Fold this sequence. Notes:
The protein is an alpha+beta fold. The protein contains five helices and twelve strands. It has an eight-stranded antiparallel beta sheet. Strands 1-5 form a two-stranded antiparallel ribbon.
Amino acid sequence: MRTRRCAVITASxxxxxxxxCGGDGGGEGSAAIPTAEQLGASLLTPDDLDGxxxxxxGPDDSLIPASGVLSAEARAxxxxxxxxxxxxxxxxxxxxxxxxxxYRQLDMTLDDPITPPDDRTGHMVFVQHFLLAGEPAAVQAxxxxxxxxxxxxxxxxxxxEEGPGAATEMTTxxxxxxxxxxxxxxxxxxxxxxxxxxxLVRQGAVLMMVDVVEIHVGVDPLLTTDDVDAIVTTATGRAxxx
Length: 242
């Protein structure tokens, strides 16, 4: 996947696939389709995760509300990537045409954070949780197109001025009706490494993306595979309890 980095939140750049094909919850079968407000209530909270976490409200506190329900203006500020040319036209169109309905970023509070430019040793860890809802058949079709596009883009990736980058298939916990995961690694020109654990989950009428991101410089990675799996499992469990 070819990345395009956007400054979504203070001191954090994310590499994410925005998947939104949300509806307004109306129409036939709408009783099974959660509203944006219900999705917002399903977002991860700091108390859901091990360790100490805080909500990152973004560069403008009024842009992403505490509820996590996205306005059109807030949605336009979310980070995004484009599927690579190897993905089908249909998969790339699906990625371009989707709209997230609810979003939250949680930042892990660490004793040794990366604080450039003075300190280039430590970790930065954050989780981004995206949700949308629509007719179940349409959500399933969207999931399949995105999964196929992500698969087509495995391998080396273009990281621009940074060092080598690669996307590899990632084992995911058995959550939701369908799930697919990709681990993207990017070597920073300054010596750090990005680890983006990107998981796409479909559960009935809900499509979810969970990005668990760690940047580490001069130290070993902090998060284990079990840590990432626990976050994804917790996020999916919240959506199931709505």
